[in-house]
Amino acid sequence: MIMIAPSLLSADFAALGAETAEAEASGADWIHVDVMDGHFVPNITLGPPIVKAVSAHTTLPLDVHLMIEAPERYIADFAAAGAGVITVHAEACVHLHRVVHQIKELGLLAGVALNPGTPAAVVREVLEDLDMVLVMTVNPGFGGQAFIPGMVRKIAEIRGWANDVNPQLRIEVDGGISAETAPLVAAAGADVLVAGNAVFGRKDRAGAISEIREAAQRSFRS
Ligand SMILES: O=C(CO)[C@@H](O)[C@H](O)COP(=O)(O)O
Ligand SMILES: [Co+2]
């Protein structure tokens, strides 16, 4: 089943509680929270205290996307703040296997993200251990960027491997996802779609979420 994870990066930061509750009421499956440190990516957003504050406004899993160097330093803090899924960037981890198990030992779902310039092969050796791979379809750091079509091949490659070694693997896509791009990624095997601008940029959030979901559902290929 396709899941939709609206990204709070495009929400009103002065009203994160209300924006989160509205996303849940509008049919979101997860709430995507973008954490940026100004080093791994050229932008700074938020940390565990804000994740904790947001968690009081939803019953949905918080899908925490860590765009930070050496994320192992903060995993326990984000878990304590209420994260349900923690995704680290492969490019930010020297000991990727250890970090994945650090997340799982806290009872959370573990994801690994790949920048557009990073080959799929980087996750191959940990694929059996993962709950999710996040294929970035823009260069991370900002919302509202254009989808990079070349990433569709990477999604299909990972789905092909997962069918052999980890059929339950979720493949999340993040960046430039809309009702227009959703069918492309779903046809390649992505089943968790992050959408920032395409949801929070619209007044009718429920309409936006269901349009993206239906567009993806029609072409999903597992
Ligand atoms: O991780 C990121 C950006 O680095 C994302 O989660 C963005 O927030 C997606 O925004 P849109 O491209 O959907 O507007
Ligand atoms: Co993100």
Automatic annotation (TrEMBL):
Note describing how the cofactor binds: Binds 1 divalent metal cation per subunit.
Entry binding sites for a divalent metal cation: 32, 34, 65, 174
InterPro entries attached to this UniProt entry: Aldolase_TIM, Ribul_P_3_epim, Ribul_P_3_epim-like, RibuloseP-bd_barrel
Any one annotated GO CC term: cytoplasm
Molecular function per GO: D-ribulose-phosphate 3-epimerase activity; metal ion binding
Cofactor: Fe(2+); Co(2+); a divalent metal cation; Zn(2+)
Residues reported to bind substrate: 7, 65, 141-144, 174-176
Any one Gene Ontology BP term: pentose-phosphate shunt
UniProt keywords, alphabetically: Carbohydrate metabolism, Cobalt, Isomerase, Manganese, Metal-binding, Zinc
Active site: 34 (proton acceptor), 174 (proton donor)
Pfam families: Ribul_P_3_epim
Pathway stated in the Swiss-Prot or TrEMBL entry: Carbohydrate degradation
Catalysed reaction equations from the record: D-ribulose 5-phosphate = D-xylulose 5-phosphate
UniProt-listed Enzyme Commission number(s): 5.1.3.1
Similarity section: Belongs to the ribulose-phosphate 3-epimerase family.
Function in brief: Catalyzes the reversible epimerization of D-ribulose 5-phosphate to D-xylulose 5-phosphate.
PANTHER family referenced in this protein's UniProt entry, alphabetically: RIBULOSE-5-PHOSPHATE-3-EPIMERASE
Descriptive protein name: Ribulose-phosphate 3-epimerase
Organism this protein belongs to: Paenibacillus donghaensis
